[in-house]
Design goal:
single chain; alpha+beta; two-stranded antiparallel sheet; 12 helices; DUF4041 domain-containing protein; SNIPE; coiled coil; Phage_T5_Orf172_DNA-bd
């Protein structure tokens, strides 16, 4: 084919970088060396053209980023834009191959967008599950335990665990704990093959049971789910290692062992709860016994005082001084004794009567923390002194000591009012709240039938202040 060379006219454009000439075009060697990046070409029967048609350079699509579909989508959009721009510059808008390429890229882009949408939906679901799992783990670590199988007491859990163990033993005795192939052969012998499969099955079952017993022995209420997942991974590992012989732990047997782990965790949580209840009951009984001793001592004191006053008054009347000043004084004292005795009898007969106190210990708990409780002691400060024993470094300051015929109801109302500001959100018997004394006084003054006569707003804390440099 004859190639016609021509001398490019003035202003011949610089070819685009990477441009490859069409068929039938050839460089013109008669021209002096062209500037950097220039070449002169001449077409056959196309010398009238003023510029060559550039070849479209298809960009390389980068692989998707490991963190999602965002980079893949951006690469496709960039490639699409570059192709359209190149087509517009070259004027080749009717090239069917390139149009089909663009159409395929647009379809691929739509697929990527759909994948991104599905991935975002799955991510939202996983995040919700992760948040719920994190909240559950946090609450269980703090002691707020959700029983998988709520029972009344620890004895019920113990009986249920014993039943699960019996079912587990039955699975092992009947050979249903492990599933395996039945047509394995060794040196052409099915009997030898069956023996090998049985040996491997026993070995893998032994490893599984060892891990299961370890999970049962070490499980705690807050690590229940982790132990179940750990045993599940062991079951999956055994299935993978025994895949050639199709050896795997039977799913029903695995569920039994997981149920044993969960039930053991529930049992231990119930045991701890019962210990807490027993301790609280002992403390209540101790407080009631102390209050009963106070009442008995007060009764004996008033009875003795009454007998002494009555004896003295009778002696005066026998001497004929029944209307003397001394006799009048004794009669007044007898009325006081009867009133005091009536108060003691009233408190002893009313299980809800007592004193509600508001105390603080800035040296132990810091500022802004108060304790709100009640006591049925005749001398309520005895209870405060007991709270400030060797378990805390400083004695408590008393801000309010309020007598009430319904001290139980008053204490409960205050606890409900400040329930969201408890220091210990797990054990409600810990009666300390992050609240100021002034706020407690305002609540008390707003209650019907409650009259606060004396209160101390600023804690004295003499021991703490003397110990603080």
């Amino acid at each position: 084919m004859e190639v016609r060379r021509f001398r490019p006219p003035p202003g011949w454009p610089r070819p685009p970088q990477g441009w490859v000439p069409p068929p039938g075009w050839a460089p013109d060697p008669s021209w002096p060396p062209a500037p950097a990046g220039w070449q002169f070409w001449g077409p056959v029967a196309q010398a009238h053209l003023t510029a060559p048609v550039p070849r479209i350079k298809v960009p390389v699509i980068p692989p998707p980023a490991p963190n999602g579909f965002g980079s893949r989508r951006k690469a496709l959009e960039a490639e699409n834009a570059q192709l359209r721009e190149a087509l517009a510059v070259a004027g080749i808008v009717d090239d069917s191959a390139r149009v089909e390429r663009i159409r395929m890229m647009e379809a691929q882009l739509q697929d990527v967008l759909a994948q991104v949408s599905r991935a975002r939906a799955e991510l939202a679901t996983v995040r919700d599950e992760l948040i719920n799992a994190s909240d559950t783990a946090l609450l269980q670590a703090a002691g707020v335990y959700a029983y998988a199988h709520p029972l009344d007491n620890a004895v019920g859990y113990k009986e249920r665990i014993a039943a699960i163990k019996e079912d587990t033993k039955a699975f092992v005795r009947t050979g249903n704990a492990v599933q395996a192939t039945t047509n394995w052969q060794v040196n052409g012998s099915t009997i030898e093959g069956k023996k090998m499969v049985d040996d491997f099955s026993k070995l893998l079952l032994r490893a599984y049971n060892t891990e299961a017993e370890n999970c049962v022995r070490t499980v705690k209420p807050q690590s229940r789910q982790n132990s179940v997942e750990r045993l599940t991974k062991i079951s999956e590992t055994i299935a993978r290692l025994g895949s050639s012989m199709e050896i795997r732990i039977d799913e029903r047997y695995h569920r039994l062992r997981c149920a044993e782990i969960v039930m053991t965790a529930d049992y231990r949580a119930k045991v701890e709860a019962e210990k807490e209840e027993a301790l609280a009951l002992r403390l209540d009984m101790k407080e009631q016994a102390a209050a009963a001793r106070d009442y008995e001592r007060a009764r004996a004191k008033w009875e003795k005082e009454k007998a002494h006053v009555e004896s003295s008054l009778a002696a005066l009347e026998r001497r004929g001084d029944g209307e003397s000043v001394a006799a009048l004084s004794l009669r007044s004292r007898l009325e006081e004794v009867e009133a005091g005795r009536g108060v003691v009898e009233g408190m002893a007969g009313n299980a809800r009567a007592g004193h509600v106190y508001v105390i603080s210990n800035i040296g132990a708990f810091g500022d802004g923390v108060v304790g709100i409780g009640m006591t049925r002691r005749l001398d309520p400060y005895d209870r405060v002194r007991e709270l400030g024993d060797a378990s805390v470094p400083f004695r408590f300051d008393v801000h309010v000591m309020l007598p009430s015929q319904d001290a139980v109801g008053l204490e409960k109302a205050l606890h409900e009012r400040f329930a969201g500001r408890r220091v210990n959100l797990v054990n409600v018997r810990r009666e300390f709240f992050r609240v100021g004394v002034g706020e407690v006084l305002e609540v008390l003054r707003g209650m019907e039938g409650v009259e606060v006569v004396e209160f101390v707003e600023r804690p004295e804390a003499p021991e703490w202040r003397a110990s603080t440099p």
